[in-house]
Amino acid sequence: MQEDFPNGTLDRRRAGILLHITSLPGSGSTGDLGPSAYHFVEFLQSAGIGIWQMLPIGPTQPDGSPYQTSSMHAGDPRLISLQSLVDEGWVESEVLEREQISDQEKARHLLEAWRAFDSRADEDARGLLARFVDEEGHWLKDYALYRALKEEQQNRGWWDWPELIRKRDAAALARASERLSHKIDYIYFEQQRFFQQWTALKAYANDRGVGLFGDMPIFVAHDSAEVWAHQELFLLDDKGQPLVVAGVPPDYFSATGQRWGNPLYRWEQMERENFQFWVDRMGTQLRLFDLTRIDHFRGFESYWEIPAEDADAINGHWVPAPGDALFDRLHEIYDPLPLVAEDLGIITPEVVTLRERYGLPGMKVLQFAFSGESENPYLPFRHEANSVVYTGTHDNDTTLGWYLALDDGLRQYVDDYLGCSRETMPWPMIRTALASCSLLAIIPMQDILALDGSHRMNLPGTIEGNWTWRFNWDQLAEDLALRIHRRLEMYGRLST
Q1: pTM across the whole model
Q2: Given 280, 384, 395, 452, which residue is catalytic?
Q3: Residue 129, Cα to own-chain centre: how many angstroms?
Q4: 201 with 42: CB under 8 angstroms?
Q5: Within its chain, how far is the Cα of 373 from the centroid?
Q6: What fold characterizes domain 2-71+210-490?
Q7: What local confidence, expressed as pLDDT, does residue 464 receive?
Q8: Which residue stretches of the chain have pLDDT < 70?
Q9: Is residue 122 annotated as part of the catalytic site, yes or no?
Q10: Residue 96 contacts by C-beta under 8 Å, 6 or more apart in sequence?
Q11: Is residue 398 within 8 Å of residue 453, measured between CB atoms?
Q12: Catalytic: which of 342, 343, 397, 447?
């Protein structure tokens, strides 16, 4: 569906649902690319919804955050469908009889699938795997070696590996590749299965008028294949530790700001290399998604640099970034460039100029609109067409939870603004989003299901209890798709 987003902009009114794929129902510890994903596409189609937005899909680290992954290219193996592997004959069907399958059990079944493939795959299947490795080798080989070494090193961060490996001595890497070849071959198979299953789901969605909307963090995790493989592109000391780290200053979410901890880029070196790091990264994203949100877009104009030794973000400062040069380069390679700028937080005129220069839609979050002043840029009458309106995002409370937490005066202001309605919250807010002039309206699944704050996805500034929310099919009323369809028709947002 990428042709539906010419020149990186939205072309007509649409509606979407924000639901990370891990939040789908299923027997595993997270949702995956199996039957529930296809069922959800069918629900979207029946409701007239044309966009499925999700969070980053890379391999997560122990905290489960999709914004701190071990690779910016690889897919999370937890998302691989065992059903598909059973259908292909690489896993015995009995594994699907279990009501719950842990991550460890799933990993064991994936390894069993590889062993079965390795012992009896035909020439065509082996050829497909070899072609995948060849086509994706620019990132896959580093990632597979990183994963194999990390397991060999008892899961320690790459900066604590033996010096020759940490510094990527060519002879040491060659010896490690030989020593760990069986593990590396398995990881090749695992990633090929992920991309094969993803491609099939995307084709199924696109054929039914549903585009996939992804999310790309601006920064990458310190303990990742990319930082290990491209240390010269990051502000690190000679032991691999960050000199400075990423975050944001104090804001709506936190009085002390947010210290994300990601290493910052050596932008000058990236520019000398003609931004190949970003060209490759964008290429993977465009293959996976029809539309992509760039998280923390303002960091391409200037970013908040925090001393690595600081425990919070208060003492950071803004440092200019070469956003114009980067986006000029990306537009040379990719046209169209279907991106949405996450432009929340402290946004300066320079950030607005950068976004508008490349025609990128910004974001309008209705939960931010009701501060009591008519100048608030998130109020619906201040939206512009080339934007994406949300009731809330994965970082917000659910709309019902937000509404119930308001003080009496502010809740009355919200009621007065939205007007009398026979529907209970969050539906008046959903209607307001759908009525907005923004060409794309996105509603989190929690709001579609009218769930309270106990169902929120993430609480910024905390590290526990996040990213685990899931729904179940019993929560969908029989007439839910029809009710949504009627509203989308009313507000000119039906998918065609």
Answers
A1: 0.96
A2: 395
A3: 26
A4: no
A5: 32
A6: TIM Barrel (3.20.20)
A7: 87
A8: 1-3, 5-9, 253
A9: no
A10: 27, 82, 83, 86
A11: yes
A12: 342
| Residues facing 15 on adjacent strands | 441
pLDDT of residue 18: 98
Residue with structure tokens 């489960």?
A: 64
* Residue type present at position 234: F
CA distance 104 to 106: 5
For the chain, the average pLDDT equals 95
Sign of the Cα pseudo-torsion (115, 120, 122, 123, in order): positive
Residue 239: its pLDDT value, please? 97
- 178 as an active site residue: the answer is no
Pairwise CA distance, residues 306 & 246, whole Å: 6
209: Cβ–Cβ under 8 A, 6 or more apart, which residues? 45, 50, 495, 496
Phi, psi (deg, nearest 5) at residue 9? -110, 170
pLDDT for the residue numbered 9: 64
Cβ atoms 294, 337 nearer than 8 A: no
DSSP category for residue 297:
G
Structure token digits, residue 149: 């070494």
pLDDT value, residue 254: 79
Dihedral sign computed on CA atoms, order 425, 382, 387, 344 = negative
Polymer length of the chain: 496
- The domain ranges of the chain are 2-71+210-490
| Distance (Å) of CA 17 to CA 3, 30, 54, 411 | 21, 18, 9, 25
Of these residues, 88, 92, 169, 295, which one is catalytic?
295
Q: In what order do the strands lie in the sheet with 440-444?
A: 339-341, 291-294, 211-216, 51-53, 14-18, 440-444, 387-390, 362-365
Query: Is residue 88 annotated as a catalytic residue, yes or no?
Result: no
Contacts of 478 (CB under 8 A, 6+ apart): none
